Amino acid sequence: MFAFNHWIEVLEANALHFPQRAALHFLPDGVEIGETLTFAQLHEQSQSLAAALQARCSPGDRVLLMLPSSLDYARAFCACLYAGLIAVPLFPPPSRKPRHLDRVRNVVIDAQPALILAPLDHCEGLRELVEHRVDVLTVNNLGTPAPDTWQRPAIDGASVAFLQYTSGSTGTPKGVEVRQRNLIANVELMRKAYGFDEHGAMVNWLPLYHDMGLIGGVLAPLYSGMPCYLMASQTFVNAPSTWLQALSRYRATASFAPNFAYALCNRVVSDSLIAQLDLSAWQHAINGAEPIHPATLDAFARRFAACGLNPMAISPGYGQAEATLCVSATPAEALPVVLRLDKSVLETGHVALASGDATAVEFVACGYPQALHTIAIADPNTHERCAVDRIGEVWLQGPSNAEAYWKNPDASRYAFEAQIVGEPGYYLRSGDLGFMHEGQIVICGRLKDLLILNGRNLYPHDIEFAITDSEPGIRTGRIAAFSEMDLLLGREKLVIVAEPQRKFVDPAHHPALFASMQTAVREAADCGIDQIVLVEAGTIPMTTSGKIARQGARNQWAAGTLSIIAQSGGQASTPVERIAIEQLRRQPSLSACQQWLEQTLIEVNPYLSVDVELSLIGLGLDSIGIADFAARLHRDLGWDLDTQSLFGERRLAEWAQALLVYLGTPAPGARLESDATPHPRRQSFAQRRLWFLHQLNPQDTHHHLVLHLKLQGPVDRDVLSQRLNALVERHSVLRTVYHDSVDGPQQQVLPASNVRLTLHDQLADCLAQEHATPVDLKQGPLLRAHLISHDHQHDLLLTLHHIAFDGRSAQLLLAELAAQAANETPVQYLDFARWEAAHWTDQRIATHQDFWREHLADVPQTLDLGGSGTTHGEHSLNFSLPQATCDTLACVAREHGMTLFMLLLASYQLALKQLGGQQRFLLGTDVSGRPLAAHNEVIGFFVNQLTLRCEIAGEGTLADFFAHVRDEARLAYAHQDLPFDLVVAALAPTRRAGHSPLFQVKLNYQPSRVAPVTLAGAQLTSMDIAQAPGDFHLVLDLVHAGHGIDATLKYRGEYFDQPRALRLQHLWSRLLGEVRDLLGESLPALAQRLDDWDQAFQRESQQSHALAGRSQLLQTKRRSLTL
Fold this sequence. Notes:
By secondary structure, the chain is an alpha/beta fold. It contains 35 helices and 42 strands. Residues 583-663 form the Carrier domain.
């Protein structure tokens, strides 16, 4: 029936047919690629890990995967299938609180795993949880056996591939047995339904323990040969816009998400960001996993049409874990079908379209059944097939259906062996209520009590138990949890009806009781309660068997017949008078901050009863609500908060105080308003330094930046000229000139004028001329543009001065040249200079300078590089680190709680120490220097230089040294905002010509500068930014591209030379290549190892030079004899 029998055959075929094609990319920040796996690498690494698993486990053993979303997760999952083991995807517990651990404990008891794979920081807690009866390891603990040691398992389509657990914490969990044939059938039919192929791309932020995240977001694209761009769920929660930015940047064609994600983007993605997006490639915006709200679809289609989203890309779908994943899909060539049904008829269990004056309820059709699959609508009690106009239970039949729950025969028979009266064959009972409309399935309710909130299946008894277990004020067994679609929220809202203990009837207890209930539900289920209703004893209806009648409680709540004592939420809060943002900035006060936060919270959830003495969790916000709140703070105020800090116990009153402090950070009058006036204005601290150097030597070109853009295809020169002119008009810093005055160094904006796009024939001549010709900072122009064209190959050269431009500016320039910029005027660089002057008060400067004086005291401000050079001038050495090495380094960095840059920094320090012998020195690096979110979209010279303290001593291991460098870097980054010139002023170093103060060696690291982009009709293939080392003796620039890290070692010949540059490259590259194996080595032993490597390399170099010399001599002699 299908081309493959099991998953191993799928990955083997992909590795054979397109081995070097990228299969998976991981985006650590949601935007830049941090790690990539090709199909060949995935196959080989899955084999290697499988061999390690086979050495520990027996065929058919279960392996719990409790890993965060990452390429390690994909490797581990595939390795389980390669090893003939049964993978069990499960969430890493968010804390060690009993409710979180209970979920894990119940699955462990049911699945009886032989092994648990988890992050390092969870391992010890999990070992205690399983009482050390199950091995708990990291993926790296497994080692990397040779792939050829793998033994092919004896599996076929009937073999269980993995278990999908669908239950909560208090009951017996149910693990759906997904067999190899179920998985193959589902991903094959998704491929056909959505047209997935190697020309598309997937972006996935859903957690990989979620069926839609794992099967839809990773396995379906792997099966179809299309690359998947994977990011952590928390990245999306912290900044929902990263999802859309990744779709835009990587021209992705497909992505899965629940309805709430689309609603969240509608609310929090700003107009300015939308103007930068290009969603025209997105063909399948698949919406599923929870009830779909028609207004959400319409709002999303309208809001993002401005950035190219095709409304037919909106694709509602329906799925079930028991059916592997996908049950039905909306084809790409069709708009979603929205039905207006008569509410009164619907309540009788029938379906009728609403007439014009009837009360209507809207439902979204969820697409057509997949090929080879059947959907039936059956009476849940009689098991008879329903008439076409009746609502019934949705029953499913087809090869994607699982056949059983793990070791649960009773539940399996009920769910998987349903039969329609008078018809052959088994059906899967979905528990959902719905009907068919012109071949499409419409879901309109749930037969069982399952709650679906924010795309997750939750069980009411879990939530009820969490409350009564932690809050003695609620009567045990007298509480009902249910949900209701809410138009104001645009999602299902959670309602709790509960009977309080007698002594808690007193209203004085209610605020604390409400807050305690919110906290309990947040900890147990990561959701907030939208409405709490306390009712009189005996109010909640019960069944004849003494159980809570949740549906009865829901009906009474809807009808307004409950005997209510008190409630929190439920009615839209009375709007607080809105304070304009500019008024808040101009006249900040504690009461104004509190009022503004209250109004913002009500915008997030209109049902909140705001109490300033409660935390955000206590008020009822869940992780999605907190993400929404944080996004509004960023959008409206530029206030960037760590989302995790918002989950804490800080009261709203304290957040108001924090906001007041934040607003008071710039001095009064320093708010960021656009200023592009022609009047002279002060230069920024960074500009003053470059202006001073320019005045010393106006002909110097060390601070030139020459952007070299390579283009392929037809270039529309008129469009290119228009975009350049628009760029200069939009960003006043590109038409700013500089001069001195009695008030100090000044800058002044000139009127906009056209940029001259000069055409040339010879690239080399043009490049040489641009590097040699100074930019006139007093007269302009500040931007020069040259185009060299040969057929459809073009080189665009843009020359600027660093005083007006930096690395982030290059990204902004590229984005605006590639697409029409938004209409609104951006904040200007002049605004930053004005803000900076107000922000850096004498007291604030003194405080930061005190830190730097103490932190850098007694550290030598010169670095011995092992002797002087013999040739003057500027030189460079280019080399690269392969992606495989970068992947390993990224993994090691994560294991040690550090960034990849910190690891590169630590290893570079060791190589420098080996070269010159110096154990204590200072090293420099560039930081963005954009302190407020409003600065992120501004072209200008923001970049600041950060001084890093380096000390290599002691008997500790390399791992210990990494921890030391990590801590030192974190400390320095916490004080990175003070302008470098003020740091220099604090330490007052002895100045020497040709020497940068404090440090003369730099290490710079940045992600790839180039995203797939079309510029004036041509495709951008590369962009290089050329800049001389200036007064630095040695600068190592690292750019992390898709194929690895491109490194450029720039040095000045009077202080360094080529032989030492080659030695430095060799030492550093080899150290990075072997770093994982050296983590336990002591620093003295490592120093000896580095010395051995260095001596061997020098001997080999000398031998090579001697051989080359002898060869040259022999050739000279032969020529002499011939003559």
